[in-house]
Amino acid sequence: MVGLSSVKMAEAKRPVSLANQLGSRVLSLSEPASFDEIVARYHADHRGRAGRELRFFEIQKSVEDAVRRAALAEMPSGKRFRHQYRIPRTSLEQAANRCSSTWP
């Protein structure tokens, strides 16, 4: 996978393709690709999903429930968020318990 740090956007002579984190979609940037253009494209591609994630935590019955689910990296399906898969479940549970113990 090609990362932004390995591509010299300013020196690009032809369109540059960057695979996103999922590897299933390709982001095509036409020359010149400014930082603002990259950010705008990222927002266009990811804002909806991020909004749904936030909404999931907003609709929890209590702040404590929302914090616990966030600490456990739980999605609405009950599965773990993809970017948290390497963290052992026991570590997430310890974090959730510590967060819970701080509530008055």
Give structural notes.
With 104 residues, this protein is mainly alpha-helical. It folds into two domains: 1-51, no CATH class; 60-104, no CATH class. It is built from three helices and two strands, in the order ββααα. The chain has helices at residues 35-58, 63-71, 89-101; strands at 16-19, 26-29. A two-stranded antiparallel ribbon has the order 1-2. A hairpin with a 6-residue loop joins strand 1 and strand 2 (26-29). It is elongated and about 45 Å long. Mean pLDDT is 76; it is low at 1-17 and 19-24.
Summarize this entry quickly:
Helices cover 44% and strands 8% of the residues.
> What overall form do the CA principal axes indicate?
elongated
Mean pLDDT: 76
Radius of gyration equals 19 Å
**Strand order in the sheet with the most strands:** 1-2
The main sheet comes to: 2 strands, antiparallel
Terminal residue distance:
46 Å
Order of secondary-structure elements: EEHHH
The level of helicity is 40-55%
Show unreliable segments: 1-17, 19-24
Summing up helix and strand content along with how strands pair, one would put the structural category as mainly alpha
* Strand tally: 2
Total count of helical runs of at least 4 residues:
3
| Count of individual domains | 2
